[in-house]
Design brief:
Elements: H1 3-11, E1 13-15, E2 22-24, H2 44-47, H3 58-71, H4 82-103, H5 105-115, H6 131-146, H7 150-176, H8 180-210
Antiparallel strand pairs: 1-2
Helix pairs in contact: 3-4, 4-5, 5-8, 6-8, 7-8
Length: about 210
């Protein structure tokens, strides 16, 4: 779904399954009869009422998500028809998927790129095509593997976390400049930096526990 298609879908109006009244595709309930609706074919940003940008307001994201989920709590539908219970569960599932995607910078960047027509496959496993990135990853992974004290691994872990944050800032700048090629390249880089940071944290935890 490209950005233009996503915008059109979010603005569309469909008939309510219950009363046939007009319902916006992102609406949870029909404004005419109050019946819960099935999840519309809209993008994650629209589903949570967020602007399609990398620099999202995390507090607003949390507020929107939990606010919607409260309205879909199973207790509210205990006395409803099987269809309404099923639709409320489908809405909740779609909201969960949207939230899990948008709250993580890496997933959010890849998803936004996809909306803009430049797909980045975060699940692909294989050789890194960028020689410089490959060399960087090999050196950093070797440093983590060779770390022989809590002090050393703590420093490496902090450095890795800082690089992740810096990369996220560069991704933001690339999106703001409309440079999707650079945003895509940096998103791939963020994938590997995040993995390194996780490896460093895991080793730090293991070494710290061994001293107790």
């Amino acid at each position: 779904m490209t950005a233009s298609v996503a915008n059109a879908a979010a603005a569309a109006v469909v008939p309510c399954w219950s009363c046939k009244g007009p319902v916006a595709t992102r609406a949870l309930f029909c404004s005419v009869c109050g019946a819960v609706q099935g999840p519309g074919a809209i993008d994650h940003f629209s589903r949570l009422g967020m602007q399609p940008t990398f620099d999202i307001d995390q507090d607003l994201l949390e507020k929107q998500y939990f606010g919607f989920q409260r309205r879909l709590h199973p207790d509210r539908f205990a006395a409803k028809s099987p269809k309404e219970r099923a639709l409320s569960q489908s809405q909740a599932t779609s909201l969960n998927e949207a939230y899990e995607t948008l709250k993580e910078p890496l997933k959010r960047a890849a998803y936004l790129l996809d909306l803009k027509g430049r797909k980045v496959d975060l699940t692909a496993c294989g050789t890194i095509n960028d020689p410089m990135l490959l060399m960087e990853q090999m050196e950093k992974r070797e440093a983590i593997a060779d770390a022989d004290s809590v002090e050393v691994i703590t420093k490496l872990s902090a450095d890795a976390d800082s690089e992740v944050i810096a990369c996220q800032c560069h991704i933001s700048a690339a999106f703001n400049a409309g440079d999707l090629d650079e945003a895509g390249h940096l998103t791939i880089r963020l994938k590997y930096l995040a993995k390194l940071a996780e490896e460093a944290r895991t080793k730090k935890t293991r070494m710290t526990r061994a001293l107790r």
